[in-house]
Design goal:
Elements lengths: L1 E10 L2 E7 L1 H4 L7 E5 L7 E9 L4 E7 L3 H7 L6 E2 L1 E6 L11 E7 L2 H14 L3 E8 L8 H7 L2 E6 L6 E2 L2 H10 L6 E5 L2 H12 L5 E4 L15 E4 L2 E4 H4 L2 E3 L5 H8 L3 H14 L6
Parallel strand pairs: 8-9, 8-12, 9-10, 10-11, 12-13
Antiparallel strand pairs: 1-2, 1-6, 2-5, 3-4, 3-7, 4-5, 13-16, 14-15
Length: 281
């Protein structure tokens, strides 16, 4: 059992929890994730570690309430417990190298995930450009945190309510077209965002890393549910990733797999809402 020591509502659909998990906090690194199960009847879901405090023994997770499990998780309060909280899992980000100029891109909830990785890039001596994007201003996350660690900071919104009116690729394209030296792009967000970021950088052959939160069940490579094709070879996102070369990922296959259980996820979500009287908090 893992106690929730802090809870914050970041926006109407996104929440942050800080969980007391000293054994994980002691050894985790940016880019890794945990597998959680809220209770005995719950499903397992992967959540990337958004931050960690080794002294306090705490792990920060940030998630959007998009289905039954994340809504159940979001209904928990400070002092409540999560049954299973397993990790750290996955390969950590390669952040110790000094690449030169790094562009770190976060879309929606991905901004919270990219933050510790971007911070590590900066601490390694890289020139850090961050692009923080969301559908609307209310959904932008980690705005001050990202700006504080950045040499250059950009925000984009689909509706133009904040920053550049457009997508993260709008700013990325402008940076590339200005002949800026870009040595690495690191992107985290919805699969379509990572797909188009990778397409944007491919022509100039700019190394691009994406973090894939595909379907996962056990997080150890035993079940094979998180299969993804990278460079024509089958990989398991949980043990071979979650980070991969964005130019090598078969995003069309990935998107198909992510949508494979959409019908059942929707039915489970609707049933959970009915059982709770239409209240998700």
């Amino acid at each position: 059992m893992y106690e929730i020591t802090f809870k914050q509502v970041l926006n109407p659909v996104t929440k942050m929890l800080i969980v007391h998990a000293p054994e994980i906090a002691k050894v985790c690194k940016p880019g890794q994730f945990v597998m959680i199960r809220v209770n005995e009847t719950g499903e397992r879901i992967p959540l990337t570690i958004a931050d960690f405090d080794r002294k306090k023994g705490e792990i920060t997770i940030v998630f959007q309430e998009v289905g039954k499990t994340t809504k159940l998780l979001g209904s928990l309060e400070k002092g409540d417990y999560i049954l299973d909280f397993i990790g750290p899992l996955g390969r950590p980000s390669e952040t110790e190298k000094k690449y030169g100029t790094v562009v770190a891109i976060g879309g929606g909830c991905g901004s919270a995930i990219v933050y510790p990785v971007a911070r590590a890039f900066k601490e390694a001596g890289n020139y850090l450009i961050t692009i923080n994007g969301a559908r609307t201003m209310d959904l932008l996350l980690y705005r001050k945190q990202m700006e504080d660690i950045s040499d250059e900071f950009y925000e984009t919104t689909d509706d133009g309510s904040c920053g550049v009116h457009g997508f993260v690729t709008t700013v990325l394209s402008e940076l590339i077209q200005s002949d800026r030296q870009i040595d690495l792009v690191f992107a985290v967000g919805p699969a379509p965002l990572m797909k188009f970021v990778s397409k944007t950088t491919e022509a100039k052959k700019i190394p691009t890393i994406v973090s894939l939160n595909s379907i996962m069940v056990d997080g150890t490579g035993m079940c094979g549910a998180c299969r993804v094709t990278v460079g024509g070879q089958m990989k398991f996102a949980c043990v071979d990733g979650p980070e991969f070369d964005g130019h090598q990922v078969d995003f069309n296959e990935l998107l198909g797999r992510l949508n494979a259980y959409k019908k059942y996820e929707t039915e489970s979500d609707e049933m959970w809402i009915r059982e709770h009287g239409g209240v998700t908090d």
